[in-house]
Known about the structure:
The structure is a homodimer. Chain A is about 40% helix and about 25% strand.
Amino acid sequence: MTTLGIDLGGTKIAAAIVSEGRILKQDRRPTPQTGWPDVRDAMVGMAEELLSNTDATAVGVGSPGPLDFDEGKILFAPNIPGLENVQLVHELKERLTLPVFLENDANAAGFAEHRYGAARGYASSAYVTLSTGIGGGLFIGNTIVRGAHGVAGEIGHMTLLPGGPVGGDGHDGSWEALAAGRSIARDASYVYGRSMQTAELFQLAHDGDRKAERILDNATLMSGIGLANLVKVFDPAVFVLGGGMASDEQYRAKVEAGMRRYLDGWPVPDVVPAELGSDVGVIGAASVAEVESSQA
Amino acid sequence: MTTLGIDLGGTKIAAAIVSEGRILKQDRRPTPQTGWPDVRDAMVGMAEELLSNTDATAVGVGSPGPLDFDEGKILFAPNIPGLENVQLVHELKERLTLPVFLENDANAAGFAEHRYGAARGYASSAYVTLSTGIGGGLFIGNTIVRGAHGVAGEIGHMTLLPGGPVGGDGHDGSWEALAAGRSIARDASYVYGRSMQTAELFQLAHDGDRKAERILDNATLMSGIGLANLVKVFDPAVFVLGGGMASDEQYRAKVEAGMRRYLDGWPVPDVVPAELGSDVGVIGAASVAEVESSQA
Lengths: 296, 296
């Protein structure tokens, strides 16, 4: 089955014709910063060009959220100016005369890894992005676990240390506030007394700097605890680790060691790195269209 | 559809003929403490008596675990002497000549509340037992979320405070080690310098004893954090709170207040007390048989 996937990001829009997880052709444009009509027209323009001379039967869009799934709306996109309460599904369907399906970007990306990437062949998986923030998605068979309010998979907001540092949502001690890239940079800047980015801290730790190692030990142990908690709640067959930090093998090994420490005496799922790289967004959006249109 | 449910417990075996969540007739016997053949024969005897002159088409058994679902085996039942590696499904099927389905007892109980109890009408639910220990089950539609290794729903073992008190599985800072009845009794005994049970501590707190209130405040806040974490992972439409402690309305109110504190800015699911009382085990086991046999 051939579908069109659109990955709507804060800086770029990527779109591709995808068949069984393989990209047949693709396009990429900067995201207009001038409001919804321009963003919509950019998506429609790319879609019309890509769709010509294909047998694509549905369109999937991966979008930042929060979303209203019932209404097919983006309620609010923090990184894209002017995207508030927009009828994405309705307006795209009208112009493209194909079924259109909306999914949040982390769920879409994780679904791509679940079906066609690192978790293919597993009955269930949890996708965990360890990046500036921490997010993810949960998958059983062909189902994306969205939850009753679309919140399922917002795993970075689990509280792992009550009384710990306050995160972006104002709550103390979340996984993200303890272990995301932005929290590592925060701790590094505090320790070294100057603004320091995550990449420099990683480099210092690789070079054997004791304090940098300690900051990373802390963060990776907390991420290990986060994964172990997901086993006790959802028990996926495999964890797929994506996001910038997870591309570092030593970092992944430390996270996995932390998880194993907290799973001593418990079943231990496989842990694998994400496979689909920068194409994960469009493949995911196309996969959502593929599965949703066949179930509709 | 009519099925037979058997609830295999450490002190008693309950069995009932159940139709659409209603008990038509039932029986209850002490659990033989003399090994598997006697336990099996007790179950078979009760089943044969109850099944006569009914149109029951399947049997469900709720059992303590761990279980091997593929093989239909109880691997080990900590509270029943001699139950190790027993072929429960195979041996019951042979004697009763009906399809037999095995489920862990917490999942079965939660499934009863999901289908016929406090969560009926909700698309998804999480069942949380707040008792001597803390356990639960997760449900979407007609599906019990078992996980890849049967561990899903072992929510009491989530780590909520790394470095906190060590729990029964040897890990520090689990929800259960921070907030279960046994951990409240542990903290009360420490504070008052003598052996104290949970019920006495609850009474002291109701009478306004400051230290007792503080112990309960702590435990209920941790349970609130546990529920809030489940929203960020699984996002159920409703929480059903069961178990001894949850029958206390003030206790439930404190747990819910803790949850709301950690869900400020997030969607808040309904929180309701369990409804089915002591019949929950047999109704759950019967419900498992109902759903599994119609899907088989």
